[in-house]
Recover the amino acids of this structure.
């Protein structure tokens, strides 16, 4: 079953949370010259026009990127300003917000000749769209199962590995499958930086993933959650976005708390951000 299409959700609060974390992690990794292999296990289309019929249906970007974009000239957090100036780069006129960049774009920014990038997408239509995106020649697009690809690729030839696992969680079993593949990759590359996104739903299904990682013996698992609304309110579905970073770069917690303080003010309402160690060092 592959019915999920990210275009319906592009630029929502979870994308903001995920891509700000990804940007901050990468910013730190790029301070050293040694080569990095990036693997994006669930890449999506790569770029999302906000006027597409899919995105217009739910308009989730109005509770995500849009309020940040509108305030971009008056912001005080330098990281948020930097991140939004990156978002400007994909706007055809450089002024109005008409596109939102997905993880393939964020990962391909700042890619150096020594680095490698593999973008995996299983959905044939989404993969075809990804294939059309203008990305650097080092970006290899793989049509196939991202978790299998991750397992087949480790250990990697470069000294460093950075992975984004961002599934659609259409099947309940995906929470356990993600944990199994992440643990397999970490057994092969102990120092890999692994980012895993998960939704917080009223069912609490994400606990399968958290419990499996907590019990695994892997250390240094940083967790952050961006809540948009209280669970159990009138609106069903995802009420918060979660991010795990295994082997987080130094200073990630402080930088993310700083940036999210301003983001939650802009998102308003019941939005709140929290961080903790799921498993400490
Ligand atoms: N990472 C993207 C971003 O941040 O812009 C969004 C990805 S979206 C949440 C999940 C994507 O995974 C969808 O495009 C879906 O078609 C794809 N997908 C679902 N199952 C997959 C699998 N087993 N392997 C690779 N891609 C898969």
């Amino acid at each position: 079953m592959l019915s999920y299409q990210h275009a319906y959700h592009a630029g929502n609060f979870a994308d903001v949370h995920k891509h700000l974390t990804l940007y901050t992690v990468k910013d730190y990794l790029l301070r050293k010259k040694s080569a990095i292999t990036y693997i994006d296990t669930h890449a999506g289309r790569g770029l999302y026009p906000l006027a597409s019929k899919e995105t217009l249906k739910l308009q989730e970007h109005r509770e995500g990127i849009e309020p940040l974009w509108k305030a971009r000239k008056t912001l005080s957090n330098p990281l948020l300003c930097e991140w939004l100036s990156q978002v400007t780069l994909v706007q055809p006129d450089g002024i109005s917000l008409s596109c939102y960049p997905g993880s393939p774009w964020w990962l391909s920014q700042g890619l150096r000749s020594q680095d490698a990038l593999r973008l995996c997408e299983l959905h044939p239509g989404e993969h075809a769209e990804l294939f059309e995106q203008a990305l650097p020649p080092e970006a290899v697009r793989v049509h196939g199962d991202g978790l299998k690809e991750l397992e087949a690729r480790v250990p990697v030839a470069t000294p460093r590995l950075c992975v984004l696992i961002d599934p659609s969680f259409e099947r309940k079993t995906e929470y356990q499958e993600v944990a199994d593949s992440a643990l397999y990759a970490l057994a092969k590359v102990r120092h890999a930086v692994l980012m895993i996104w998960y939704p917080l739903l009223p069912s609490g299904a994400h606990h399968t993933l958290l419990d499996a990682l907590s019990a695994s013996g892997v250390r240094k698992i940083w967790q952050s959650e961006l809540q948009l609304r209280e669970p159990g309110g009138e609106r069903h579905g995802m009420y918060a976005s979660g991010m795990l970073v295994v082997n987080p770069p130094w200073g990630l917690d402080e930088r993310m708390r700083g940036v999210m303080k301003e983001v939650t003010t802009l998102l308003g309402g019941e939005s709140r951000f929290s961080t903790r160690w799921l498993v400490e060092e």
About this structure: The longest helix spans residues 13-29.
